[in-house]
Amino acid sequence: MNRPRLPGAARARLSGLPRAALLCAVVACLNAVCWSIVTPFFQVSDEEDHFAYVQYLAEAGGLPRSIPNSPYSQEEDRALLDLHYFALRGSSEPHALAYRSEQRVLERDVGSGLSRLGPGDAGLANSEPPLYYALETIPYALGSGGSILVRMALMRLFSAVMAGFTALFVFLFLRELLPSTRWAWTVGGLCAALAPLLGSMSGAINPDALLAAVSAAAFYLLARGFHRGLTLGLSSAIGVLLALGFLTKLNFLGLAPGVLLGLLVLVRRALRNCGNAPYRWLAIALLMAFSPVLLYFLVNVFTGHPALGIVSGAFHASGGHGSLLREASYIWQRYLPRLPGMAADFRGVLPWRDVWFNGLVGFYGWDSIYFSDAVDHAALIVAAVVGCLCLGGLISGRTALRARLGELAVYIVMGGGVLALLGADGYLGFPGEIMEYRAPRYLLPMLALGCAISALAARGAGRRWGPAVGALIVVLSLAHDVFSQLLVISRFYG
Amino acid sequence: VRIALLAGFALLALALGIVLTSDPLVAARSSVVSDSTEVVNTAEPIRICQGGELIPAGTAAVRIVMSIASVGPRLGVQVLAGGRVLSEGSKDAGWRGEGVTVPIERVHREQAHATVCLSTGRHGEILSVYGQGESGARSAVSAGHRLSAKVKLEYLRPSGHSWLSALVPIARRLGLGRASAGTWIALAILLGMGVSMTLAVWLMVRELPDRA
Lengths: 494, 212
Known about the structure:
Structural class of chain B: alpha+beta
Strand content of chain A: under 5%
Shape of chain B: elongated
Number of helices of chain B: 3
Largest interface: A-B, 94 and 67 residues
Oligomer: heterodimer
Largest sheet of chain B: 7 strands, antiparallel
Number of strands of chain B: 13
Radius of gyration of chain B: 23 Å
Order of helices and strands of chain B: HEEEEEEEEEEEEEHH
């Protein structure tokens, strides 16, 4: 019997990938699969809304819309009740299902043929672009003969595959970033694969899974351009990637300015060797990148909706809320220590530590499952050591770094863009809610940078100790992942 | 690299052993049954004291039902008896959710007629503390004013059974709430973790040189 074979080009591409990169992808996939089993259904932020979006898209063939106080489909509403969703969410006390009798009730209810078509409201997910949800209709359709539990399990597994792509792109990014330190690619790739934040989000139905993969790919493509030079193929790939990002999640808007800046810098460099051709490449890339945005704009204009949808509302709200300087001060304080002369926006809280660092150490489920203070304090010491090693590595390689300042600036703009977008959105709810958009998952688009810090820290330990320190950093990531899963298990099943 | 891996995994195994042989905290007693009443709702730092509390022997943490819009402030808990501080503890700022556990120094003997005080650091958001309606001398006091309710304080102490001894019931519960329910789910997770761990180690041994 003939085995199905991959097309020649795809096979060549795959065989060109380092085996270590593929193995990192497999580890990330497996890790996310474990997370998908460990976390009860609907107990990851907004999973009920994301599922409702996919279900409406699959059943009605249309995009969801905002309908105040609207229920989900009968099937989803019943599953939420039977799985104790309302009791479990946010609270630290009750457990998930504990008795066979509860399981029997659940199986009876979800198998009773309840309607899968809701009124069309997907809550917080209404405003999100459709790419992730459209992809998730594939596992949804594959499991359409089964209950909602079967479909959700398949959809979570599909998300887990995206974790594999994220780890793969982080590995490839490091290959371009640190071409002479081969072993550091594996250190960074494994750190990504074992990151509990990536596992928990990619083990759930959530567009952050795809956003993480697209963002890691953006870092990779730009690093490739900086290392090997821009070509028509690469600029087109960056254009397609920008389009995918815009279609994945609104948060990609934070990363996009940095990617565009990177593209411009690469075009400027390419002009030295390729005549005027890079201008044409840039035009093609921009056309590809903005075609979905243009389409969205035109559809909104012709259907009488605000031209930029929900984003238009954000501009209006931001404009009426205070001066730009005031907003900039708020955004600064969300991530960095307050400077003299700034109004105190976060009294009693050190956002960089209490919100972001501790959040990265572990905030799971509905951001209500976290480690004890002692663990956070210990993690801060470890992070300081890793930070010092990274800094040492950068200082020792300062000559090479000076030649790559443009590239570094692009990555900083990409990361800064993500933080600024979160800050600007958070400012809309301020001061009623001092820190909206505070979940650590919003930092997932910057995973490649985090893993680069780990790889640089290992390299910063020197030629003798570098690989051993790299191995220790990976074991630390593994321990972080294992204890994070145990924490979630103790919360829901302990 | 191999030595680093061995040392790393030895430490991981040791930490796992310590965690699995420790006892989970369980609620030994609660000051009131319900948490349906909003006892306090304020954006200012608070100090609430509640007298007549019976603190069970072995209490090592107090769980309080409270909520805040985004980021919780630093919390402090003091247990007072006979005019002296019997135990105290704190929880750093940054907590979220609706139930906060504040670890305190272990109370070795049961203590009747204790006063428990809860204080918060500065915060810029509305903070709500929940409990049960109660009038008279048994209700909580804040800034010299008697409130018409009691805060729900749950006293947690080690269960006396380690996580290790609870593995089978946990594995059973892990298998529920899914399409194909069964204890095998726990084994699937162990297998998945084991395979990914083995792959990661193999990759490190293969790719990381002993000296760069």
